[in-house]
Amino acid sequence: MTTFRFAGVLFLAASYLAGAQITSSTYLRSSFTPAAIATDSTGNIYIAGNVALDSVTGRQGVLVVKLNPQGTEYLYETYISGSTGGSTREYTGGIAVDGTGNAYIAGTTTSSDFPLTPGGALTSPSTGSNDPRPFLVRLDSNGIVTLSTIFGGQGGAGAVVIAADGNILVSGGSGQKGFPSTPGAYTVSDTTGRPFLVKLDPATPKILFSATGIGGTSIALDAAGDIFVSGLTGFPSDYPTTPGAYQTQFYENLVCEFPCHFYSLGPSQYVTKIDPTGSKLIYSTGLNPPNDDGLDYNGDDPNLISMTNAGLVVDTGGNAYVTGVTVYPHYPFTAPPPPNLVTVPFVSKLDPTGSKLLFSVPAGGSSLQLDGSGNLDAAGILYGPVPVPSTATNAMVGLPANFPSLCLPNNVTSFSEGYLQQLDPTTGTVRSVQFLDGSIVSSAVIALGSEGKVWMSGATSHPDIPFTLNPLFPPNLGPA
């Protein structure tokens, strides 16, 4: 079989009024891997992701596209990149859209000449590929850059949200000591490899507060303006927890490649609730196996991911939901995962105090949203079987018992598939599933659209995604 390598973007809109069904599906363009998606109040769709600018040097930038509510027309395309040659790159972290159609994109740059608007240099520029800087860019409703700033210190931004006062919260990770903090904000002495949480005034621009040692890959707000973050830490003995939280102690989660000689420390997950000033931890808890856990795995498995934290939402009652995948055998599931599935997705719900795990079910994995009816929508990727006879089984919660086995990944002609699930937010029960067939589907993210639709965006490495009539088909995509 000839492999035709490209990265094409796809969309999926699923309506739950009459059960999950694909209403629109299209390719967008080659060499583009989406990392974040959002919609505005009128239903327009915004996708931000990484785009290959030079295949020879590996130069990469950020591309932001805006489409109409039907996903059938480009409204703008904007590239965000420095002009430095070589292999320096920009990486997409997250996207948020305000009520007037301004899109805020957070990410990471290693370009010394990353383009900044006046007053945007809140830190020194990058000196090269080993010296990243977090950035925040604002695009107006026409895709014109109206704010571009780099801030903090060495590190990268991975999540962004708009506060009720119009200011911007950005979270990410620091790469070295000395990431700046502001007086009164939560802080740690050594910021190397630790998260940060920064609030910026985009009008000036200026930093309103900068907290270190807290933050993560996902961020959300509740009605009171309290800040929720979730992520992974490689320093479980140092990440803060609060008395009475669900898990106040992090245990060592170890992984080792077969044949096993030396175990390495795997990541640990946390969820933290912070007051609006960035100074006080309302609660902070681990969300991991309740004791030391580990996995011996086959190094030939191309699908193994030890753990991810890929999504966080908060409902009107202050309950927090997180999603990701785990390989830890004793992750605290409240419903048993499918047998023989090594990489298991999860959606876990914590009560408003962070002291109780209300449910943790094997679902989701890539992205999470709460819709207007209070339903929980979750995207995920189903990976192919592990190439070990005793575990060569595919399974996923929510698939019907009579699902055709030929549609599942097999690590021969198909390595991964996408899926979209709707869950009951009270019990975690899967209500409906939309399966997205394709040979290699990845990086699925979701956003809520108009008319009860859920838009799903991702990348594929083969041109075999099913799409609907009149797609936005890339003109340079050849037959394969």
**Assembly category:** single chain
Total of helices: 0
Largest sheet geometry: 4 strands, antiparallel
Q: Residue share in helices?
A: under 10%
Strand order of the largest sheet: 2-1-31-30
- Shape designation: globular
Determine the mean pLDDT.
86
Bin the strand percentage. Answer: 35-45%
Radius of gyration: 21 Å
> Ranges with pLDDT <50 over ≥5 residues?
1-7, 14-18, 386-393
What is the β-strand count? 31
| Terminal CA distance | 10 Å
Structural class: mainly beta
Brief summary:
This protein is mainly β and 480 residues long.
Write structural notes for this entry.
The structure is a single chain. The chain has 480 residues and is an all-beta fold. Helices cover 0% and strands 43% of the residues. The chain contains no helices and 31 strands. It has strands spanning 8-15, 22-24, 32-39, 45-54, 59-67, 74-80, 90-97, 103-109, 133-139, 145-150, 155-162, 168-174, 195-201, 206-212, 218-221, 227-233, 253-258, 264-265, 268-274, 281-286, 293-298, 311-314, 320-326, 344-350, 357-361, 367-370, 376-383, 416-423, 430-436, 441-448, 453-460. A four-stranded antiparallel β-sheet has the order 2-1-31-30, with no helix packed on it. It has a four-stranded antiparallel β-sheet with strand order 3-4-5-6, with no helix packed on it. Strands 7-8-9-10 form a four-stranded antiparallel β-sheet, with no helix packed on it. The radius of gyration is 21 Å and the shape is globular. Mean pLDDT is 86; it is low at 1-7, 14-18 and 386-393.
